[in-house]
Amino acid sequence: MAIDEVNFTQGELYTFVSSRDREGRAQKLVAMIRGTRSEDIINVLNRIALSKRLEVVEVSLDMASNMRKACEMAFPNATLVIDRFHVVRLVMDAMQHARIDQRWKEIDKENEAIQQARSKGARYKPLILSNGDTPKQLLARSRYLLYKLPSQWTQSQLHRVGLLFQLYPSIEKAYRLAWDFRSIYKVHSKEKAIRLFHDWIRQAKDVGIDHFNTASEAVLNHFEGILAFFNNRSTNAHAESLNAQIKLFRANLRGVSNTKLFLYRLQKVFA
């Protein structure tokens, strides 16, 4: 079983609950609930017979407290598994925010340098690095490189990342921490994963980057659900695939002009 929120149109959110079919291959819609309030989700899910809900042994979800509350009430026998994708994205976002913080600092420095040059009647000349970037450009153009492993960098990208890490050591620390976290999910032993998570949390708190301190606290607060992944290595992949199919279905209809009719069509096709 999986639960996730879906944005239809103009910011209107729906909660989708889905489950694999009997063959364990295709994901089928179980419920579509307008909004994300836990009370609304619970009210709809409680329409399913209790005997059926008691059969649910595992639910994959994100770290939202409303989803957790709804699942605990509706599926009392289920183990709640925090989806790996959402946890990793949180840590990768912390890495990117470390880069963004440095970029804002460079923008402030540039603005100050421009004003000083003008006050002297001179023309501002930015620093040009060995690869042709200014520091501000270097930080902006490195965004997607940080989502790659070093083995995936081209020569020019390797040059850019080398400059980035040389000028901004905190970004290199953030990059190492983020990828160390991702590697924990490759471990198959739950006991080893526990040790690695605790080691990572200590490093994240000691690195001196506020965003990683926040991320490490979130990992601690959801530790039980994060560790539950290592029981069966369950993810929201099937639910995300279903969401992608629904988005394609919506695109083929050229958007949603009549929400009620659209939901009816979804029920006929995906339920």
Account of the 3D structure:
The chain is built from 13 helices and five strands. With 271 residues, it is mostly helical. 24% of the residues are buried. The longest helix is centred in the middle third of the chain and has 36 residues, at 84-119. Strand 4, helix 3 (65-74) and strand 5 (79-82) form a beta-alpha-beta unit. The chain starts with a strand and ends with a helix. Helix content is 59%, strand content 11%.
**Poorly predicted tracts of residues:** none
Query: Per DSSP, what share of the residues sits in E-state strands of 2 or more residues?
Result: 5-15%
Overall 3D geometry? globular
Total number of distinct structural domains:
2
Distance between the termini: 14 Å
> Helix content range of the residues, please?
55-70%
Q: Taking Cα atoms only, what radius of gyration do you get, to the nearest Å?
A: 23 Å
Class derived from helix and strand content: mainly alpha
Quaternary status of these chains? single chain
Mean pLDDT: 89
